[in-house]
Amino acid sequence: MEALYATMTGALAACGLYLTLRGRTFPVVVGLTLLSYAVNLFLFSTGGLTTNGAAVIKEHAGHYADPLPQALVLTAIVIGFAMTAFSVILAIRVRGELGSDDVNMARSDESREGKS
Amino acid sequence: MSLLFIVLLPLLGSLVPLLGSNDRRSLCALITAVLPAVALGLVMTNLGDVLHGNVLTYSVPWIPQLGLDFALRLDGLSLLFALLILGIGLLIITYTRFYLSANDSMPRFYAYLMLFLTAMLGIVMADNLLLLWVFWELTSLSSFLLIGFWHTQTNARRGARVSLTVTAMGGLALLAGLLLLGQIVGSYDMQTVLESRDVIQQDARYLPVVLLVLLGAFTKSAQFPFQFWLPQAMAAPTPVSAFLHSATMVKAGVFLLARLHPALAGSELWLYLVGLTGLVTLIYGAYFALIKYDIKAILAYSTVSHLGLITMLFGLDSRMATLAGLFHILNHALFKASLFMVAGIVDHECGTRDIRKLKGLRRYMPITAALAILGGASMAGVPLLNGYLSKEMMLTETLETDLLGGLAWLVPVLATVGSLISAAYSLRFVRNIFFMGPPEALEVTPHEPPLMMRAPALLMITLGVVIGLLPALTVTSLLHAAADAALADPVPEFHLAIWHGFNLPLLMSAIALGGGIALYALRKHLFAFQRQFKPLDALTIYEATMQCIVRAAQTGLGALENGSLQRYMLWLVITVLCLAGGSLVITPSLQGSLQQQPLDGVLIAGAAITILAGLATAFLHRQRLISLLMLSVVGLMVSLAFARFSAPDLALTQLAVEVVTMILLMLALFFLPQRTPKESSGLRIVRDVLLSAGFGGILASLNYAVLTQPIDSISQFFLDNSVPGGGGHNVVNVILVDFRGFDTLGEITVLGIAGIGIFKLLNRLRLFMPSSDFEGRPWSPDSHPMILAIVSQTLLPLALLVSVFIFLRGHNAPGGGFIAGLVTSVALILMYIARGVDWAQQRLAFQFQPIAVAGVGIAALTGLGSWLFGYPFLTSAFGHFHIPLIGDVELATAMLFDLGVYFTVIGATLMILANLGKLTTPHRPSKQKEQS
Q1: Closest by Cα among B486, B490, B318, B323 to B408
Q2: Which residue from B29, B107, B410, B885 has the fewest beta carbons nearer than 10 Å?
Q3: What are the residues facing B890 on neighbouring strands?
Q4: Cross-chain residue pair B730–A48, CB shorter than 8 Å
Q5: DSSP B530-547
Q6: Where does the chain cross the membrane (chain A) (predicted)?
Q7: A98 touches chain B (CB under 8 A)
Q8: Which residues, 6 or more positions from B685, have their beta carbon under 8 angstroms from its beta carbon?
């Protein structure tokens, strides 16, 4: 099971990275989201994969899932959303200003050529 | 305690001139002079103590962890320099009052000057190696300001830049050297270092220490081959030159040689490096002083030459040589400062510094001429003046040295040659400016400057003459105390006198003076000889090197930072691959000691769906909507994975975030192109696939390694203390709002900032809105479908109720502020989608920004509230309450904190989505059929 879980994490990370290497903003944002899924899964698994663990403190609970990675990942999910939102809105703003969704900063290149 | 004030008063003094104004110049000079004068008085009160051989110290810890104390000392060496710095500093303040023109800002000049003076005092009085370095850097910075004082002139700016580059470079080398020195000794305390000579010199790191420290000293003291910055610095106002190049800045280098002399000197390495560098600089500087035409350049090169002389004396392996070096520091400061002042007067009165245009000024300014004659004679080493005494001592010591072994006779010969040239340029300086018939090339008629402008030079020349006539009475005890500090061994018996009988040094002096006159008489041939060389100096080489470095940096930067996000990502990934991959290669096995848990069909199917959906997201990315749908499948599967592995809180959060993210991305996609054009070449795709596969492989390997290792987690603490310490049964929530509440506070702050950032990004944004989808089909006119509208309206109260329920139970069962906030947001956003923005805004008559801000505020105030009860920030209190009808309820202040989280999440999420949604309303393209 661990091998399968690790393969899944790796596969999501690979797909996410491939997308972030693209040249347009939208795939990059989607890639970032995929990457953050992979990272969250990785972080979550550092506490071990617990099946049927108790989530809350009980009198006769057998074993608990490690709560610390869960707390970390919970905030990471929300922050990840904020990051996705910020980058996609930035992409929209860039398109509105420059008329392009190319990630390679067309405008600064133009001004640099204009100066020299 | 008075030691502290000696340094502190001038530092305060750098603020005093700013109270003055350019209109009342004498007042400004006067108030500036007060504090250094008091400091000088304080030094004088300690004079007797120090001359008797006591070392006064003062120390307060500054950064004890680094061994950096604010420790000051006043011994003989510090005393000699402190007197020079403060005494000449006061004279410079007086002189400057008359030198600066009405256009120059006098308060600014004095402020820089006092800052520089403080830094110099700090160097000479530092009792800690690191503190010494701090002041050392401060002199580099403040001299930069002083040299570039006339910042509108290109020369001044260039001079300032060159001197900063050279001395700061040396300063960095010095820092490295001092750190090594401190490591060898085990302390940065000056006294400990000075007493550890044997430890230092037997250490293998002695060689780098000497090289680095000398690099610092030689750059500061303008020793060959770093001499070029000093003539450039002549672009400064003359008072600055007079101060920096006589008593201070350049003397910092030789001071360092003297200060560390007990610890570092005495080895062959020191002898050759210091002695020979000094000798070369002595000859080099003297020669160029002879052939320059600018009178300040003559003095600048002469300074280089005399510093070479002092350096050489510190290099020679004899105690008397060190004493002679200290004596020459004093003498050189006196005559060179006054000669610079004379040069400034000449420049001021005649409007030129070109020695070819100046002559016969004796008739117009006889007193200044007399000062120049005495100063020049002292510089040339004419008997009965102070310069003669130390030069004579120097010549005596060169005869004793065994530097260069069998060629040891070269040293006195070269020293005599240096003195000879020195006599020649001194004669040229005095005779060409003040004699040789009436001036013809001048446009103005020069006359004597105001009395107070002459007075400083007069005072110093008088002092020089007194020392020259009565050396034994005036400076013996001061020199003895200074040499005591600069020598590891006892100070030798010495007797300062003008007449030592007929001996070899006297003959050498006579040869130097006679030869100097002869060389001066034959100077025409020398100039003719010099003219056949192209003027190539170290500055040209320096400029070429700098340009080379800048070009190389630009090329390198252009290759690395070309504005392409793809390029940056590439470098990042390659770095990760190299670092993580490299350490994985040397790991013997990924498999830890844990056995794998068994697989079942559901798990395999789930993983397969996740992986396939991920691959589909990546490879269908050019069809953006499909890619997005695939992404949502991945998100859902991740949520299920959390549920499967006993993390219901995470599953709920992921599910809610997934909904919000999808709505956001769909809305964003509306404003972006629907498809990605085919751009990447086949080669690039292959490259990216390989990189991604490598990255994924490494991450998977790491994850597998982590999963099969037994963990030793601190989580047991949270499990044990959640109920007794935090009053909640849901450990994850208790960690978020109690144990790690400060982290959560930071995170909701980030969330709020992201929301506000997005709000600003969307402000006044004009967007192109497509009137149809990418296949050319117009949008449906039915923008608010009735079923959705009715269902969402019905669901809203229910959803709000659920979110309140999730919030309330969060402390004891899966739920909490994050999840409740997301559920509320989703419910509200559904209203926007179903009914449109206008409809929703009419009914939700409040702004979202204040909600987010209030959320962060509530959380922070809850944390602060615990201060009222005398507990640390964010301490949680809880208790059981009995509420009628509802029953026994456990309440904790952490719930209040969670309420802050709840509001922040709602505020931020709606700020993002509602503001983006608002952009769609003004001109709904689907209603304007005429658009194409």
Answers
A1: B318
A2: B885
A3: B880
A4: no
A5: HHTS----HHHHHHHHHH
A6: 6-21, 28-51, 71-92
A7: no
A8: none
Closest chain B C-alpha to A114 CA, distance in angstroms: 16
CA dist list (Å): B891 to B772, B806, B811, B874? 54, 15, 9, 16
Name the closest residue on chain B to residue A83, using Cα atoms. B754
B524-545: string of b/e by CB count within 10 Å (b at 16+)? Answer: eeeeeeeeeeeeeeebeebeee
Q: Is the Cβ of A43 closer than 8 Å to some Cβ of chain B?
A: no
Element (H, E) at B368: helix B366-380
Report the residue of chain B nearest A22, measured CA to CA.
B566
Task: Tell whether B526 lies on the interface with A, counting CB pairs under 8 A.
Answer: no
pLDDT per residue over A9-29, tens digit each? Answer: 999 999 999 999 988 889 999
- A85 vs B: CB within 8 A: yes
Closest residue, chain A, to B720 (C-alpha): A57
Determine whether B637 is exposed, middle or buried from the number of CB atoms within 10 Å of its CB (0-12, 13-18, 19+).
Answer: buried
Count interface pairs A-B at CB distance under 8 A. Answer: 314
The dihedrals phi and psi of B74, each to the nearest 5 degrees, come to -130, 100
Instruction: Choose the closest CB to B628 out of A30, A101, A108.
Output: A30
* Residue the block writes with tokens 């972030």: A20
> Cβ contacts (< 8 Å) between B697 and chain A: which residues?
10, 14
Shortest CB distance from B699 goes to which of A9, A25, A95?
Answer: A9
Q: Which of B582, B563, B569 is nearest to B692 (CA)?
A: B569
Q: How far apart are CA B104 and CA B109, in angstroms?
A: 8
With the C-alpha atoms ordered B657, B662, B664, B668, is the resulting torsion angle positive or negative?
Answer: positive
**More confident: A110 or B492:** B492
**C-alpha to C-alpha distance for B640 and B499, rounded to whole angstroms:** 102
- The amino acid present at B351, given as its one-letter code, is G
B636-659: average pLDDT:
93
Residue B33, class by beta-carbon neighbours within 10 Å (0-12 exposed, 13-18 middle, 19+ buried)? Answer: buried
Q: Report residue B27's pLDDT band, with 50, 70 and 90 as the boundaries.
A: confident
Dihedral sign (CA B709, B710, B712, B713): positive
Q: Which three-class secondary structure state does DSSP give residue B676?
A: coil
Residue whose structure tokens are 């100070």? B491
How many structural domains compose chain A?
A: 1
Question: Is this model's pTM higher than 0.90 or not?
Answer: no
pLDDT of residue B226: 87
8 Å CB contact of A12 and B618: no
Considering only CB atoms, which chain A residues are within 8 Å of B641?
A: 8, 41
A67 in contact with B at a CB cutoff of 8 Å?
A: yes
Token pair in block for residue B361: 């000024």
The CATH number of the domain holding residue A75 is 1.10.287
B641 inside 8 A of chain A by CB: yes
CB of B689 within 8 Å of any CB in chain A? yes
pLDDT at B790 over 60: yes
| CB within 8 Å: A81 and B570 | no
Task: List CB contacts (< 8 A) between A51 and chain B.
Answer: 597, 644-646
**Between A4, A18, A95, which is nearest B599 by CB?**
A4
Looking up tokens 């090329």 gives B555
How far are the Cα atoms of A55, B598, B599, B608, B637 from residue B602, in angstroms, in the given order? Answer: 22, 12, 8, 10, 12
The DSSP H or E segment spanning B301 is: helix B295-315
Q: Do A51 and B711 touch (CB under 8 A)?
A: no
Angle at A84 between CA A37 and CA B667, to 5 degrees: 115
Question: Looking at CA atoms only, how far is residue A115 from chain B in angstroms?
Answer: 16
Distances (CA, A) of B731 to A22, A37, B460, B647, B748: 41, 23, 81, 11, 19
Positive or negative: CA dihedral A57, A63, A69, A73? negative
